[in-house]
Amino acid sequence: MFQDKFATLVWTAYPLADAGKADSVCGLNYVMQGNLTLGQGSWRQIGGPSPVVITDPRLDNTGINVSQKGTYMLEWTVDNQNCVRKDTVHISFWDSPNFKGTPVIECDNTAENYRFTIGVENGSRRPGQ
Questions:
Q1: Distances from the Cα of 67 to the Cα of 15, 27, 56, 91, 97, angstroms
Q2: Least packed by Cβ within 10 Å: which of 32, 55, 71, 125?
Q3: In angstroms, rounded to a whole number, what is the distance separating the alpha carbons of residues 28 and 30?
Q4: From residue 90, how far is each of 16, 31, 32, 47 by CA, in Å?
Q5: Which residues are within 8 A (CB) of 102 and not within 5 positions of it... i.e. 6 or more apart?
Q6: Residue 115 three-state SS
Q7: Where are the beta strands (DSSP E) in 81-113?
Q8: Buried-exposed string 7-21: b where 16+ CB fall within 10 A, e elsewhere
Q9: Digitized pLDDT (tens) for each residue of the chain, 129 residues in all
């Protein structure tokens, strides 16, 4: 704080808003990976195919739940004495696979190479896989 006969100046640190890296998960639940180093934070949904239930919007690592698969965009806002910063993150939710049948194990005649096969239904492939 600096003070003279005319004014008092108060220096307030500018907060860092870090919503974490984009991520994807099988299922409909996720723990956010935000970072809070100074001030107070708050999560809010800004995009996605259905509403997001945010367990505690004030926690940087709060849980979230969605009702349908897809990609959701969330915003992490950090406020330190009216100095505000924001960051966004995309979280993609995929169907969880259901395994069916009995796994099949095949090996070659030297027993050096194996192939393991299982049946899967539902689930979504991530792009690039």
A1: 33, 10, 18, 14, 16
A2: 125
A3: 7
A4: 19, 13, 11, 9
A5: none
A6: strand
A7: 83-94, 98-107
A8: eeeeeeeebebbbbe
A9: 555 577 777 777 889 999 999 999 989 999 999 999 999 999 999 999 999 999 999 999 999 999 999 999 999 999 999 999 999 999 999 987 777 778 788 887 777 777 878 777 766 555 544
Q: b vs e for 98-118, b when ≥16 Cβ sit within 10 Å of the residue's Cβ?
A: eeeeeeeeeeeeeeeeeeeee
43-64 b/e (C-beta count within 10 Å ≥ 16 → b): bebeebeeebebeebebbebeb
